[in-house]
């Protein structure tokens, strides 16, 4: 196991640097139907990756519509800037009205990590 | 939206208290086949919930075998105690040899949260 950056070169697991850095844990329950969700979700993943301070992303959704997405960031400021991005704000509003039954957003500071 | 504890009473989303508290983000890629995994995974969820300082759990795995489990804890000490639980240590060893192609464990401090 390694405590520094992720040694796996071909993986769904984000290749994060040594801590400290920040993680946003987004846990959600989707409403029924697509309603434009998939296209917007793909666009948001692309757009997030273009933002200053972006370090990586991990995302899983199961067949019951429960999902966890974790995005990794260099700083709280980079998270705040992404939260306030105009296209992202529009997506957040659609999320609240159309796409999610419920969600939790948790802003966290990564203290330690290890990898297999 | 609420910034305090999760208002959703019937949900897959953990009912965490107001921050600060701690989150362990476990992202993993399974090997093929069950090999006793499902039974042990259920047992570990039950056992974790019995530990001092446990606050909740969220877990998703998709059809490709990629999973994210986040467990929530009162303190770093409660996380350390759970990591060193003998039954959990045995499960961790099986995870490294049999169940996971790769994983990341990230120990984080939750600074802020909000809910829909």
From TrEMBL, chains A, B:
Gene3D superfamilies, A to Z: 3.30.70.100
Q: Which Pfam family, just one, is annotated for this protein? A: ABM
Q: Which InterPro entries does this chain map to?
A: ABM_dom, Dimeric_a/b-barrel, Jasmonate_Hydroxylase-like
Coiled coil regions, renumbered to chain: none
Q: Where is the ABM domain?
A: 41-93
The protein here is known as: Heme-degrading monooxygenase HmoA
Organism whose genome encodes this protein: Paenibacillus taihuensis
Which domain of life does the UniProt lineage start with? Bacteria
Q: What keywords sit in the KW lines?
A: Monooxygenase, Oxidoreductase
Q: Name one GO molecular function term.
A: monooxygenase activity
């Amino acid at each position: 196991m390694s405590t520094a950056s992720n040694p796996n070169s071909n993986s769904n697991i984000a290749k994060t640097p040594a801590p400290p850095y920040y993680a946003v844990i987004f846990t959600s329950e989707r409403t029924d139907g697509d309603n434009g969700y998939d296209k917007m979700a793909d666009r948001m993943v692309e757009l997030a990756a273009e933002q200053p301070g972006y370090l990586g992303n991990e995302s899983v959704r199961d067949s019951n519509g429960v999902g966890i997405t974790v995005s990794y960031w260099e700083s709280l400021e980079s998270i705040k800037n992404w939260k306030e991005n105009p296209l992202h704000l529009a997506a957040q509003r659609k999320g609240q009205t159309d796409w999610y039954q419920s969600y939790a957003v948790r802003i966290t500071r990564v203290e330690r990590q290890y990898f297999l």
